[in-house]
Each structure stands twice: as C-alpha cells, then as structure tokens.
Design goal:
Low-confidence stretches: 1-18, 567-592
Structural class: mainly beta
Number of helices: 10
Shape: elongated
Distance between the termini: 78 Å
C-alpha cells in the first residue's frame, strides 16, 4: 500500500531536534576525495569505480558503499554535464553514527531515485527521506540512484540497553512480545485517534500495523502527526486491551501523514474473517458499515451482526470500554461502528471495542438501488425525485395502500463504479421509477402527495419487492424542494410492440381494448383482427370506467410485474441501456426477449382517453356514413366537432375537400 506523506520539511526536523547534529556527504563537490579516489570515473575513466567496499567519513559519521551485485559497478561518476554523483546500482549502503549517537534521519538529495528493496530499521517517510532511530542503518539497493549529497542527522541516543527489544513494526505485537517487556521503537508511527489516555497509532509500513500507547504523554500529538523514532515503553494490558505504557523519549512531531491514512480501515463485509483470531489486526482502528446491534446489556456488552454475501450472518462480541453513547433504538436499524479489534479477555475469539456508533446512511442513486439493491436493505435515495402519481387504491401485489409513484427523471446516468481507476462513463438512460410506500401513515401520505418535487437525500426507507414492483417502505417523511417541475420523460409504448417496461414504471401506452375468455386486456391488433401480445388490464385506479370492445385508447399507466425475470440474457434492460455487456450484478429486470413476456405484466391505467381514429368524427369508435353527416354539419355550422378530427386531409383547413377525403376512406373500407 503506497502511502503519501505530507508536509515534510527538513527545516522543521532540524528545528524540532535543535540539539541534533548533521553530517553532509557532498558528492557533487568532494565525491572522489571522500572515498580516497584520485578522480571520478567518466566515459573514458574507471578511477572512481567501487571494486571493493569503500568508506567515507564526515564528522564521525561513516558511509560504507558495497560492491554492486550487477555488471554495472557502483561508482563516483562525472557525467557529460560536468556533474559528479555517487551512482549506486545495487548492493548495500550502510550509514553509522559516531560512538554513543543514533541516527534520526537521512536525506538523499538526488537526480534519480530508486527506492531500496529493504532497510535494516526505520522507514522512508517520504521518497528519498529516511526516518528512524538507530546506531547504524543498512539500505539494500537494486536499482540505479544518482546521489548528489546525503545529509545525516544524529543525536545523543544514550547507551543502548541490550535487554530492550527493538521494533520497527507493530506486526503481531500482541503475540510476539511478552507482557512486561521493554521495547524501543525504531520505526516511524503516526497518531490516528486520541481518546483520553488511549493514543491509537499506526506504523509506517506497508500495511500500517497498529498499536495503542496508554498514559499521560509529556509530548502532545494531534491526529496525523508522526512520533519520531527512538521512544521506549513497556508492553502490557489495560482493561484487557494490549497497550504500551510508561512511554519515554518522545520528541515533537515534524511530519504529518495523509488524511486517508488516518481514517478507520473499512472492513465492511469482512466481519466473519475475524472469527478465528485477530493477531495481525489487533488494535486496528476500523469500521464496519451496515451492521445490526443487538443484545446490549447493563455492563456495556453487545453483539454486532453483518449479513454476508451468501445471506448468512456473522457476529462479533463487543464491549463499551471507552464509555461512548449507545443509540437509544436499535431494532430493525443498521449502523456504522468504528473502534478497535481486540482479543477476548479469555483469549478465545475477538471483541470489538467501539469508539463511535452512528446510524448508517446508505445513500445511493435511484438507478443503482433499482438495479443492484437488495430487499430488506435500508437506503437513502440521492436523487431529486418527482411525484408522478399519488394513489390510494389497494395494491394486491403487495397488500398495501398509500403508494406514491416517483421518478428520478434521469435521461443519463454517470457510472463511476471504477472512478478510482480512471473509468467514468455516461450512458443515455430511461428514467427509473419507484413507489414510495407510506403504509398506514396518512399524514406522511398527504404531505408527499402535495409535493411536486422531493429534495435529494431526504427519501429514506427499506427496499421491498425489487425483483418485481420495487417500492420503498418509508422511514420518515421527506422534504419538498421548491423548484420548477420539469417535463417528465415518460416512455411511450404501443401494445403489440416489444416493451422495455419494468414493474412500477409509469408510462404512456396505447392499444385496443379486447376481452378474451371473459378477461380484459389491451393489445395490438394483427392483420387478421386477432389480438397481438395482449397485456392484462388491472382496474385498481379507474374502477368501472366504461371501455368499448375494439376501441383504441391512449393512457398513462403503471406497469405491474407478476414474477421476477431471470437475468441470464444480455438483452436485459441494463445491458440494453448501456449498449454493452454488463459485468455488474443484474439480479432481475426483464428478460424481454422471451416471446411470451407480455403474460408477466398487467397495466393499471391512471388516465384514459379514447385514441382518435381518422374519420371517426362523432367518436363512436366506427367510421361510417354518420361521420359524413357529422362533418357536413360541422362545415355548415349546424354542429360543432373537434377541428383536428374534421381535418381529414390534414391541410389545416376544414372544407368540402375533407368530405371527399372521408368518402374515399369509406370506399376503401
């Protein structure tokens, strides 16, 4: 894991360690003489080649450069531009402090840098800047570095007690070090959290292993600040938590870590991996999102439960050792818990010690909820939503009333799933719809029904029936947004054609009313007069509205889906919309290439009007001689009909030419 260290300043380091001394190895001006060469190597000379270990000494600090392990020799080199550099291609480079002193930092000034493959102690707190606390440190190089100079900072490290255990990492600290052992930390560690006397720290190593320093410290460290290497302490336990106590030798911070390195590790989805132990992760400051909290007792004990990808559950014991405030209500709620992973007091299993518990806000765009949402999961919809149809009819498919249909009205979506890898794509889209389920809350229903626009991130609820007719069981009343109501991008469907409608989608649709075996449908009509792809009529919103057999109607409808569709076809709507094979989860949403797909739908009309038929002046559903009479009466002003129906030839005027056009229609029929 590459870590970015910010705000490093050599001047600050020197200021913070005002008592420290420095030694500068100036290769650019004295490279050859430092190592006892008569001249540097060049394109025509090998006098500065290092063929055996060479030593340079400045102010008591020694630098040993070993022999290269590759065919290219390490050397002091004069390049074409007249610059002298120490060029290290591979092998060991060792820096040692004067007797009784310890090195705290080394800065490699360079024109080319290749990080060492290993270092004997301490670590690089920034590219080409090492920090630690050691009498000597060895760097193993395996790539070309061109060094102009090296600045070594050292101070009085005192006598190194051989009984003190030196560490440069917190890896397996709890298991590898016996209680009561005095340790001396030679690596760099930074603070990620302070709670009273507990100071949570991570070491600067690849996986940021963790420890806790306990006590009243004589040097204060804010979150993100590095603790310079060389401090000592005792490994022990406080209230069952592995800690380092009695810390001495602290120095002011001079370096800060990035904000992201200080955040709680997100272990969401991995709670079950800790059932067998926690050694590597002990004292990790971490977070689990979307967990349930149960079994809270008077002693502050509780359990957290996470649902796994296979729908099984994993649990972990917890105990409130830091005295944080518990939520007053936990039933049927999800939380984000932050805290540390510790060993259970009996040595078996893992205990979670929380530092914060907050109600989980699972904010997602509606299209993501629609296509990837899991029933029973709580979400907050990120989009602005537009109310398209409040209804109070009984919904037989879910046994509920007080549904309000809303849409995000999104004709494009931005897929940023892989944004951190540089992939962000925008797709043309069809708006998604969902039903807001107010349940028995009449007050919430009336409030939302009166809204036109709902503010983003205020609709919060539990997703239900997402495999068929998705709805949101509301947990609170959302807020209205005062803005102009847009033109809704309704889909327009013609019965008899393939439809990309989904459950609870609101759209316009047109087709003829037919009855088949006593049941009511809308359909397209084949050339032989038979019904084409009949879709069942559901009267829940229009009651006993009088439809006429064979008459065409234009309607605004809600589509209802009876059974979930499979998604093993690349012609599911998410693939259709994206115009590419999707690699994301597609749990459902219409395998409409099934030739009998229409059997899996019903349409529930919200608004109905007869579809205009050319020549049907009197609107009785048929074109015959009575329409000729009606048209003539309209022209003579003896009767009035809709001008658009009377303009048979479509020239914008109603006159005798329209009578001729109508007679021609009758003759063709």
């Amino acid at each position: 894991m590459k870590k970015v260290i910010l705000l490093f300043a050599v001047a600050l380091m020197a200021f913070a360690n005002a008592w420290a001394a420095t030694a500068t190895f100036d290769f650019a001006h004295h490279g050859a003489e430092l190592f006892g060469f008569t001249a540097p190597s060049s394109s025509s000379s090998t006098e500065g080649d290092i063929t055996s270990e060479c030593t340079a000494t400045v102010d008591g600090v020694t630098l040993k450069v070993g022999v290269s392990t590759t065919n290219t020799k390490n050397r002091v080199y004069l390049d074409y531009n007249g610059n002298v550099q120490l060029r290290v291609y591979s092998g060991a480079v060792t820096v040692a402090a004067p007797a009784g002193k310890t090195i705290s930092s080394i800065v490699f000034h360079n024109s080319r840098w290749y990080a060492p493959s290993s270092v004997s102690s301490g670590s690089f707190v920034q590219e080409s800047i090492w920090g630690g606390n050691a009498a000597s440190v060895t760097f193993n190089f395996d790539g070309q570095c061109r060094l102009d100079s090296m600045v070594v900072t050292y101070d009085d490290g005192g006598t190194i007690d051989p009984t003190v255990k030196e560490l440069d990492t917190f890896l397996n600290f709890g298991d590898s070090i016996a209680d009561g052992t005095k340790i001396r930390f030679t690596g760099m560690a930074f603070v990620v959290l302070n709670i009273g006397k507990f100071h949570f720290v991570r070491c600067e190593s690849e996986y940021l292993y963790s420890a806790i320093i306990y006590g009243d410290l004589d040097t204060e460290y804010k979150v993100g600040e590095y603790i310079p290497a060389g401090w000592t302490g005792l490994k022990g336990k406080v209230d069952g938590i592995t800690v380092i106590t009695g810390v001495e030798g602290l120095k002011p911070a001079s370096v800060s870590a990035s904000n992201s390195d200080c955040e709680a590790f997100d272990f969401t989805g991995y709670l079950g991996t800790f059932k067998d132990g926690v050694s590597t992760y002990e004292n990790d400051y971490c977070a689990f999102k979307t967990v349930a909290i149960n079994n809270i007792d008077a002693d502050g004990k509780f359990t957290i439960t996470e649902v796994n990808a296979d729908s099984t559950t994993s649990t972990m014991a917890g105990v409130n050792k830091f005295g944080i405030k518990y939520p007053t209500t936990t039933a049927n709620m999800k939380f984000t818990v932050q805290g540390i992973l510790t060993k259970s007091e009996n040595g078996v299993g893992v205990t979670f010690v929380p530092t914060a518990i907050t109600e989980y806000e699972n904010v997602k765009k509606l299209w993501r909820i629609w296509y990837q949402g899991v029933d029973g999961t709580e979400y907050t919809i990120a989009d602005t939503l537009y109310v398209v149809a409040p209804t109070k009819a009984l919904e037989p498919d879910c046994g509920r009333k007080n549904l309000i249909y809303v849409t995000d009205n999104a004709t494009q979506v931005v897929d940023d799933t892989y944004a951190e890898w540089g992939y962000v794509e925008t797709y043309d889209w069809a708006p998604d719809y969902i039903a807001l389920d107010c349940g028995d809350n009449e007050e919430a229903y009336r409030a939302i029904a009166a809204m036109k626009v709902i503010a983003p991130a205020t609709v919060r609820g539990i997703l239900a029936d997402n495999q068929t007719n998705p709805r949101f069981e509301l947990m609170k009343t959302p807020s209205a947004l005062d803005c102009e109501y847009p033109e809704i991008a309704y889909q327009h469907y013609q019965f008899g054609d393939s439809c990309w409608a989904n459950g609870n989608q609101v759209s316009y649709a047109s087709g003829k009313f037919v009855t088949i075996d006593g049941k009511e449908y809308f359909a397209g009509i084949n050339a032989d007069g038979s019904a084409n792809q009949p879709i069942a009529l559901d009267r829940r919103y229009i009651g006993d509205y009088a439809f006429s057999e064979g008459m065409a109607y234009e309607m605004r409808v809600v589509w209802k889906q009876h059974e979930p569709w499979t998604s093993d076809s690349n012609s599911s709507p998410i693939t259709k919309k994206m115009s590419k094979k999707s690699t994301r989860p597609m749990p459902h949403k219409m395998k409409t290439d099934d030739p009998n797909y229409f059997n899996n739908y019903s349409v529930c009309p919200l608004e109905v009007k007869p579809q205009s038929t050319v020549g049907d002046i009197d609107g009785n559903g048929e074109v015959n001689t009575s329409d000729v009479t009606a048209l003539i009466n309209h022209i003579l002003h003896a009767a009035t009909y809709e001008s658009s129906l009377c303009d048979i030839d479509g020239n914008g005027e109603v006159n005798v030419t329209d009578v001729t056009a109508l007679i021609n229609i009758l003759l063709k029929n």
